[in-house]
Amino acid sequence: MSFQSKLILWYSDKKRDLPWRATNNPYTIWLSEIILQQTQIKQGLPYYEEFVANYPTVFDLAEASETSVLKLWQGLGYYSRARNLHTTAKHIAYELNGKFPDNYKDLLKLKGVGDYTASAIASIAFNEPAAVVDGNVYRVLSRYFGIDTPINTSAGIKEFKTLASSLILKDQPATYNQALMEFGALQCKPKNPNCEACPLNANCAALQHQRVGELPVKLKKTKISTKYFNFIVGIDQQQQTFIEQRTHKGIWQNLYQFPLIESDKSLSSEEFHKLKLENSILENITFDYALYNEVDVIHKLSHQHLHTKFWIIETQTLPEGAIPIKSLKKYPVPALINDFITQFGF
């Protein structure tokens, strides 16, 4: 039995029952693929269900405000995905009359859609033999064929895409692609896979040469930077607080946060007291302050670690633009801020 046949046989018995597998609607398939980028299914599934419930068609998503989309996305991280999702929905609804491109080449032109996502939509929604290559596929192919070319290099990306394209079944690309990805997720796991029960074990190069734990090969990431954040949590006698929108480019673009002061180290109360407060909301007001967390909250992102302190500022009246504390939960905020709001009891 061939590699492909064994995968499909395994998939027919072991696949998970997921809502986007019961349709060939390109809108919901696209939605699921964007949500599941860099997100595990168990985390992404509730978000998918919420998006489908709130925005059942691409027109509904296009007509939503960006703030509403970001709020629904809150907690998933990598917020550029949500902004691109909204931009693409408007493009499809208003410029393409609600019709998704029906082939890999044109799908690739959509904002936020890369090689993997275009291949997944093209194969699953339109039955085009476009090979998917994601983390699961890299792992299965590198182990089975014994390939040690680093997967995060140009040479590796090209090699694995070429191999994947040569293997795809032209008469059932959707089933084959999903079988290969599911196999990597459930059977050929990153750590301690059950190789004894694997239907591919007789011909797996990594297993034969005892290299399962070594493959796939990935070059070390760029050095992670450290930043020190001091969030100013204002509370006045009218039970108002102050938040600001992050308008500059970055992972939290267009999300809301408490006013932020960055420092070059973790600050003590005495050091915070000595801070120059020009151009901050504290510049011209009288206030009392207290440190909420003595130990830094460390929020780990892919490229940086944020060491964070929250400073509770009590004052008679906050500057113009303050909002009622009870309305805080209406605004989309980073997970770091949302966790604080929940813990503090706002």
From TrEMBL:
Keywords: 4Fe-4S, DNA damage, DNA repair, Glycosidase, Hydrolase, Iron, Iron-sulfur, Metal-binding. Gene3D superfamilies: Helix-hairpin-Helix base-excision DNA repair enzymes (C-terminal), Hypothetical protein, domain 2, Nucleoside Triphosphate Pyrophosphohydrolase. The gene is mutY. Its EC number is 3.2.2.31. Adenine glycosylase active on G-A mispairs. MutY also corrects error-prone DNA synthesis past GO lesions which are due to the oxidatively damaged form of guanine: 7,8-dihydro-8-oxoguanine (8-oxo-dGTP). The keyword Glycosyltransferase does not apply. It comes from the Bacteria. Residues 35-186 form the HhH-GPD domain. GO terms for molecular function: purine-specific mismatch base pair DNA N-glycosylase activity. NCBIfam families: mutY. Belongs to the Nth/MutY family. SMART domains: ENDO3c (SM00478). It catalyses: Hydrolyzes free adenine bases from 7,8-dihydro-8-oxoguanine:adenine mismatched double-stranded DNA, leaving an apurinic site. InterPro entries: A/G_AdeGlyc_MutY (IPR005760), DNA_glycosylase (IPR011257), HhH-GPD_domain (IPR003265), HhH_base_excis_C (IPR023170), HhH_motif (IPR000445), MIG/MutY (IPR044298), MutY_C (IPR029119), NUDIX_hydrolase-like_dom_sf (IPR015797). Its cofactor is [4Fe-4S] cluster. The lineage of its organism: Bacteria, Pseudomonadati, Bacteroidota, Flavobacteriia, Flavobacteriales. This is Adenine DNA glycosylase. Binds 1 [4Fe-4S] cluster.
